[in-house]
């Protein structure tokens, strides 16, 4: 009954890798906005805007996943695509090309939540869809979020988008399709909840980029350090854990 506490010590930091960025703002990073808000930023690794911040989310999510399993609820996230590539072979070729160009890639993570009973979520400001959206969009690399058919509903019609109800052989109400992604009116409808998160390309790249420094100069930079050409596979577990925390 006492609080569960977990700690991870960051023993592999190499702050010296970041010394040269102290005087300029990296494109795609939170350097400029943190300076605007706080008048200071931790240039030795990103601080709260670093991907390493997500370790706490994953630690808490691991507990949430275990508790949800006790209720028969499972959460599974996975890489749906990298760039415009969908198959492993296409993805491999695409990433190889990105690395040759000292560039990076983004992608889409899809998450499936099964076993959630109907009735989870509140009207208006505590909708299940809204809470999932806030949780997933709070992950630093996420720039887009959609549930069910998502943005494609803009090109749908009522007839094509509505999910028809029916009684199954056991006399229980089910849907013939799941365009809504398992949520109606912000409340779970008992079917599979499915959503997707758009992950931006890693902003730290070796290719030359234009930016400014604090001395008032326009400059070109090549960002050095340890950077992944794509973070989508690493972000899968973060998306999964944030979804588990919300549902729990």
Please name the defining characteristics of this protein:
248 residues; alpha+beta; 6 helices
- What count of helical segments does DSSP give? 6
What is the succession of H and E elements? Answer: HHEHEHEHEEEEEEEH
Q: What is the share of helical residues?
A: 25-40%
Kindly state the mean pLDDT as a whole number? 93
Query: Cα distance, first to last residue?
Result: 17 Å
Count the E strands: 10
Shape: globular
How is the main sheet built? 4 strands, antiparallel
Spatial arrangement of strands, main beta sheet: 1-2-8-3
Rg computed from alpha carbons, rounded to a whole number of angstroms = 21 Å
Walk me through what this model shows.
The chain is α+β, with helices and mostly antiparallel strands. Helices cover 27% and strands 19% of the residues. It has six helices and ten strands, in the order ααβαβαβαβββββββα. The strands form four sheets. It has a four-stranded antiparallel sheet. The protein has a two-stranded antiparallel sheet with strand order 4-5. Strands 6-7 form a two-stranded antiparallel ribbon. Helix 2 (55-70) crosses helix 6 (232-247) and helix 4 (128-137) packs antiparallel against helix 6.
Question: Helices, strands, pairings?
Answer:
Layout: H1 31-38, H2 55-70, E1 74-82, H3 88-100, E2 107-114, H4 128-137, E3 142-147, H5 158-161, E4 165-167, E5 173-175, E6 183-184, E7 187-188, E8 193-199, E9 209-212, E10 218-221, H6 232-247
Antiparallel strand pairs: 1-2, 2-8, 3-8, 4-5, 6-7, 9-10
Helix pairs in contact: 2-6, 4-6
Brief rundown of the structure:
This protein is an alpha+beta fold and 248 residues long. It has helices spanning 31-38, 55-70, 88-100, 128-137, 158-161, 232-247, and strands at 74-82, 107-114, 142-147, 165-167, 173-175, 183-184, 187-188, 193-199, 209-212, 218-221.
């Amino acid at each position: 009954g006492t609080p569960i506490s977990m700690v991870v010590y960051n023993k592999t930091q190499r702050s010296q890798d970041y010394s040269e960025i102290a005087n300029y703002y990296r494109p795609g990073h939170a350097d400029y906005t943190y300076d605007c808000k706080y008048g200071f930023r931790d240039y030795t690794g990103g601080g709260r805007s670093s991907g390493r911040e997500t370790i706490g989310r994953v630690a808490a999510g691991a507990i949430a996943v275990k508790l949800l399993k006790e209720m028969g609820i499972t959460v599974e996230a996975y890489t749906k695509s990298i760039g415009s590539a969908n198959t492993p072979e296409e993805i491999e070729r695409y990433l190889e090309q990105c690395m040759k160009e000292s560039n990076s890639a983004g992608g889409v993570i899809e998450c499936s939540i099964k076993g959630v009973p109907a009735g989870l979520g509140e009207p208006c400001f505590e909708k299940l869809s809204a809470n999932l959206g806030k949780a997933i969009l709070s992950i630093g690399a996420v720039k887009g979020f959609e549930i069910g058919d998502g943005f494609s509903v803009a090109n749908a019609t009522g007839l094509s988008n509505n999910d028809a109800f029916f009684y199954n052989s056991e006399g229980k109400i089910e849907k013939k399709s799941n365009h809504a992604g398992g949520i109606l009116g912000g409340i779970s409808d008992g079917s599979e909840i499915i959503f997707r998160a758009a992950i931006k390309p890693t902003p730290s790249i070796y290719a030359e980029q234009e930016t400014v420094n604090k001395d008032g100069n326009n400059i070109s930079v090549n960002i050095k350090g340890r950077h992944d050409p794509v973070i989508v596979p690493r972000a899968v577990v973060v998306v999964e854990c944030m979804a588990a925390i919300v549902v729990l």
